Amino acid sequence: MEEDRDRRTDAERLSEMRMGRRRLIETLGLAGGALAASALLPSKWVKPVASQAVVPEREETSPVLGTGDLQVTLTWDTDGTDLDLWVREPTGEWVYFADDEGPTAALDVDDVDGFGPENVFVPFGGAAAGVYKVYVSYFWDDELDDESVGEDYGYPARTTVASIRITTFDGTPQQQQQTFTRTLTIADDGCILTAVADVTFPAGSIAETFGQMDNPIWGPCDGSGSSAQRPQKG
To answer: Could you give phi then psi for residue 185, rounded to 5 degrees?
Structure first.
């Protein structure tokens, strides 16, 4: 009986406490209700109020980018666009968004909605002897209309300037670094790759390259290649 009485007493106290909080919120009115709730409840239980003074701005955080013997980082200057970074290893394998790990290199960031970064790196001590070939492509522009472009080869898109920073032996006395730019105007689902640089190991030397080539994975998208095999991104 004593135990039952203690339980009833606890229940009554809890009920009184809840009623007291409710009366306090009602007394303060709707305008102050959210403020009163935030004062009475742990912050993780309180829904944010649609007010600039109450809702904190979203924090933008930068991804941690891999580095080492080689680091290739792509950024660009338009929002709502999707550029891609492509690196061909000395053994011939390609590292890109749909195959993000090769024998020595890996893509650790793939940005699809503007500005980047995209980053391919080879960890310290991992570079193979030979040439790493660096390319960029223009996959898509969100301002394009899917229905209007259809399946044609290449769509005039917003002019976008890509910046490609290449670093070898990062943070060591042997470090070399160069930054190149490429201006891209045609969004073509990555059907054309634009050359940027050759990086040669073991020296870690960086040499700019020029020109374009048909995509080595699914070929040109003008009907002569395997455009139906293009990966979908979204």
So the answer is: -130, -10
HSE, side-chain direction, 13 A CA sphere, residue 74: 32
CA-only gyration radius of the chain, Å: 28
Task: List phi, psi (to 5°) of 34.
Answer: -65, -40
Is residue 224 pLDDT above 80, yes or no?
no
- The closest alpha carbon to 199, from 85, 68, 90, belongs to 90
Burial state string for 181-203 with b = 16 or more CB within 10 A and e = fewer than 16: ebebebbbbbbbbbbbbbbbbee
Backbone φ and ψ for 206, nearest 5 degrees, come out as: -120, 125
Conformation bin of residue 19: beta by default, left when phi > 0, alpha when psi is -120 to 50: alpha
- Per 3-state DSSP, the chain is made up of helix, strand and coil in percentages (nearest 5) of 20, 35, 45
Q: What is the pLDDT of residues 201-222, one digit of tens each?
A: 999 999 999 999 999 988 777 6
Instruction: Using alpha carbons, select from 193, 174, 175, 176 the residue that is nearest to residue 184.
Output: 193
Task: Give me the amino acid identity at 102.
Answer: G
Handedness of CA 110, 225, 192, 155 (dihedral sign): negative
